[in-house]
Design brief:
about 650 residues; alpha/beta; seven-stranded mixed β-sheet; six-stranded mixed β-sheet; 24 helices; globular
Length: about 650
């Protein structure tokens, strides 16, 4: 009789979006064989999306990076860890000695653990001595954190997922959570079934808008004007809540700030008629509990701080605050964007999101500094700037001019292919640490199996490199918990987090006490355009079956079978003007280049087209110029002027 081999299950966190869904990875004799659901997990109640269900297939793929690689000519050769790390340390120290520490930059990832992120910023700022440490949260979360700090003096908003569905009005701004974070759909649908109004603000007709009660197809980049028109309408009709008088530091000043945004004055600019703006504003104001979901559609613009500022003003006057914080769910598309920011991986903030006197360069600013000859070496951990940053060819040319490029990653990405040294890192299921989800829940990431071949846990790689650059005294760590302890002394979010807390199912809410602090909403003018925009604009959007630049999801057969090719969303009216229909090729041209892609006619608003960033060969980043918001240093990604031509 054949003995059946037992299957072991290890609880960990999904590596994709910021919901932080709990899942169990199944292994048999040290080999990953599947994933199972955790029915009582508080975040996702057992549900997983198509990406989460198939994430385990990434862990032991044959194309994983398994050995350190050193470039020799046009080829890589395998090397030992000692040789590879010695070389990275030697080259970085050489650049510092010849040009100064600011000639080195470090890019982090929003997919690494909070502990690895903390070590990475320590490597940059303390070991190397450079202020130039930044991460992908620059383009998905930083604008909101900066705006919140300016307006309420605190960088985070908060609403628990379980409380979200109790709202009787849900305002979804620039987000398509039913597609990008699908498990949240049950929260939205429960709220709607209980009678809640779901107001979606998005130029696209998305899966989320299908479930809305109101869909406002705003013109890209004009969200701030729309929100301020709503604020104007609420104040003019005296529909503001009693709490607004206590929350807003000067309600009369807010009325004056909102004066230039009368609905009739902005309706052409935003693409929504004045009557609809007033009606929706009144419906929101008459609701008893208002919550907002905010994502990339309003955060990846020049002027995104003004949009978040306007949203905070609206929430302050329509019962959208709770215990001192806006009832706002920020929804970045990476699993640990909050943890990495709190750990100190933004150029202008140290651990604890404390502002720095001498901030470093953001990711796009580093590209510009490389072009000027000011940055000579770059260390990239877990991100793929060649595919993720705008103006792909410009980024590629900049990186190719570096004296030294080192990349630490799980797979051979487009950026790793350009490196002088490639360091093979663990994936999320091969390391330990913490992720922080969108409701600021700190959760334990558990090691399921050992990294393949010679690959090493990411935080250990940073420690070993740090020792070679600055000595063991600065990097004495032998366990990830030692890093967590040090982080807890420098971060309010982690100050009350212990390893014991992380053993609880769902971890711990990191900032529970922060909700009890009384805060005032500081009123300053909202600087945003109210003029009508002409021509066609390109925006970008994520797809249900893919994620980020597609490094992970394009490796999963099922996901590629569901959606294996990029497409340009175009309105019926614009398609008729061009004489194209589904599948026809069009050329999309911007000021920096062009690309050809097949079209799909959808309900997107006229004058707007959309393309996903998941397929690097036809990514919108090829034709998006680098134009930065002066305050957030976030590039404009969602409203790029283009011309269309049938091929």
């Amino acid at each position: 009789m054949t003995q059946q081999l037992s299957i072991e299950e290890v609880l960990t966190i999904c590596p994709y979006c910021s919901l932080g869904c709990g899942m169990k990875i199944q292994k048999q004799q040290g080999i990953v064989v599947g994933a199972s659901h955790v029915l009582d997990y508080p975040v996702n109640e057992g549900a997983l999306c198509p990406r989460g269900n198939t994430a385990y297939q990434l862990i032991q793929r044959e194309d994983r990076l398994t050995h350190p690689l050193i470039r020799e000519g046009d080829e890589f050769r395998e090397a030992s860890w000692s040789e590879a790390l010695d070389l990275v340390a030697k080259r970085i120290k050489s650049v510092v000695e010849r040009y100064g520490a600011k000639a080195v930059a470090v890019f982090g990832s929003t997919k690494i653990t909070s502990e690895e992120a903390y070590l990475l910023q320590k490597l940059a700022r303390e070991a190397i001595g450079t202020p130039n440490i930044d991460c992908g949260a620059r383009m998905c979360l930083a604008p909101a954190l900066i705006a919140l700090r300016e307006v309420i003096g605190f960088p985070y908003a908060w609403v628990e997922l379980s409380q979200l569905e109790l709202a009787d009005c849900m305002l979804v701004m620039g987000a398509n959570p039913i597609e990008t974070s699908p498990v949240i759909s049950r929260r939205i649908l429960r709220a709607r079934e209980a009678g809640a109004k779901v107001v979606v603000v998005d130029p696209r007709r998305s899966r989320t808008s299908w479930k809305s009660t109101v869909h406002l197809q705003v013109f890209p980049g004009r969200d701030a004007a729309l929100l301020m028109a709503m604020v104007h309408s609420v104040l003019e009709a005296k529909l503001y809540s009693e709490s607004a008088k206590e929350l807003v530091d000067d309600l009369g000043k807010l009325e004056r700030v909102a004066q230039r945004f009368a609905p009739e004055a902005v309706e052409e600019a935003v693409g929504v008629d004045a009557q609809t703006i007033r009606r929706v504003a009144a419906e929101i104001a008459l609701s008893k509990k208002v919550a907002a979901i905010v994502s990339h559609g309003v955060l990846q613009h020049i002027g995104s701080v003004e949009t978040v500022r306007a949203l905070i003003y609206l929430l302050a006057v329509v019962r959208g605050f709770e215990n001192g914080l806006p009832r706002m769910l920020l929804l970045p598309d990476q699993c640990n964007a909050f943890g990495v920011c709190e750990a100190g991986c933004l150029a202008e903030f140290g651990p604890g999101m404390e502002p720095l006197e001498s901030p470093g360069l953001s990711m796009c600013e580093v590209v510009e500094a490389i072009e000027r000859g000011e940055v000579k070496a770059l260390y990239v951990v877990g991100c793929n700037p060649v595919a993720s940053l705008p103006h792909t060819q410009r980024v590629r040319e900049a990186l190719s001019s570096l004296e030294f490029l080192a990349v630490q990653d799980v797979f051979m990405t487009e950026t790793a292919e350009m490196a002088h040294v490639v360091l093979p890192s663990s994936c999320w299921a091969e390391t330990e640490g913490t992720f922080v989800n969108c409701e600021l829940r700190v959760q334990r990431v558990s090691k399921v199996v050992e990294p393949p071949g010679e690959a090493m846990e990411g935080w250990r790689i940073v420690v070993e490199l740090g020792k070679r650059i600055s000595g063991a005294d600065l990097f004495p760590y032998t366990m990830w918990t030692e890093v967590l302890l040090e982080l807890s002394r420098k971060s309010r979010m982690f100050s009350k987090v212990s390893v014991g807390d992380l053993e609880q199912l769902g971890g711990i809410y990191a900032l529970a006490e922060a909700k009890l602090v009384s805060r005032k909403v500081a009123v300053t003018p909202v600087e945003t355009s109210v003029s009508k925009r002409e021509g066609v604009v390109l925006t970008t959007a994520k797809l249900l079956h893919h994620h980020g630049t597609g490094v992970f999801t394009r490796k999963i057969r099922f996901l590629m079978e569901e959606e294996g090719h990029p497409f340009l969303e175009i309105s019926k009216a614009d398609a008729e003007k061009l004489g194209v229909s589904d599948g026809d090729l069009v050329r999309v041209r911007s000021e920096v280049g062009s690309l050809e892609v097949g079209v799909r006619v959808t309900g997107i608003r006229e004058g707007v087209v959309s393309l996903s960033p998941h397929f690097p060969l036809q990514s919108p980043n090829h034709i998006i110029p680098i134009k930065l918001d002066p305050k957030t240093k976030c590039p404009e990604l969602k409203a790029v002027s283009v011309e269309l031509e049938r091929v």
